[in-house]
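User: Can you predict the 3D structure of NAD(P)-binding domain-containing protein? Sequence below.
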Amino acid sequence: MSHHILLIGGHGKVAQLLTPLLLSRSWNVTSMIRTADQKPAIEALGKNQPGKLDVLVSSVADVKSESDAQQIIERVKPDWVVWSAGAGGKGGATNTMAVDHDAAIAFTKASIHTPSVKKFLTVSYLSSRRGRPSWWDDKSWETAQKTNNEILPTYFKAKVAADEVLTVLSRERLEKEAKDGVPEKERFAGISLRPGGLTDGKAGGVTVGKIGAGGKTSRDTTAHAIVAALDTDFRGWLDVIDGEEDPKTAIQKLADQGIDTSVEEDWEAAKERVSKL
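Assistant: Sure. Here are the predicted structure tokens for NAD(P)-binding domain-containing protein:
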């Protein structure tokens, strides 16, 4: 079955690796990029691919509300949305919050509240969580604390909030769809794909599931893991680092086992936070 994917942050490194992989599946992609001068590089990714590539020039920094994001979704009409945008440390804390918090949450809300959007995948990172899960050792916890509180405090604040919005609202939609009798395979999938430290290594196998913080994930492997996650029944938080398993096989196994690393977070407190955003 063909799909139409809105890829937000299409000029990013992971997104440029991801685009031809999506197109090679005969899936259609609308790549949303910030400026017109980025367009030729993106259009080149669509050459000789079975899927159709469109380019939308529209800066995520201009998206201030769910309504702004909704207008783009209505224009593009995707059935899947992938968030791979990020301020990348440019523009300081203000721009990080504008992109990684405000725009990310706006697109998350708009996607979940659009019935024709069936999947929303955001690219997050391994340490984007508030609590210490039972499968983390002391070193993992120390690594996460240093990353979140000392190295990337604004980024952490933005990403963990966006992850919580995705999870809380996805669960609400799933509950409603279950009550409405929507078959399980057809219900909404909200996915937070959470790589380790990104590298420029070649694509390879993965280790997924309940893994410690501090691992590395190549951008190319991350792109392949995104495709695999979209192509399986997975829902929830998906931690992924470089490893030995085939991405699709490993991720489908998690889906079959119901393993979602959002467990052990305080979701009652998260609901309160999300209600105020």
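The chain has one domain: 4-275. The first strand starts at residue 4 and ends at 8.
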